[in-house]
Model the fold of this input.
Amino acid sequence: MTIQDLKDRHPGRVCVCRPHLRDDKSGRVVSWICLQTFASVEDAGYALERFEHQSGVEDAVLISTSGLIPIEGELAAKYYRVFRGTDQ
Done:
């Protein structure tokens, strides 16, 4: 799903997502796989930790589908590293 697809399908939520497809030239993510959705960044952050520790999923990030639910700090930085392909 693109970011717009996530916004359309999961409005007002925070999605825990993994990269699905990357642009061949830039290496940036163009499509995501949504693993789970949450109403808050805090709940999604706990789920992200579970995915990392229990399932070994290291490339999952949080994506907010609402401008009213900001993702900040290290969680935002991780998103940009994964999005750009520099967190591998």
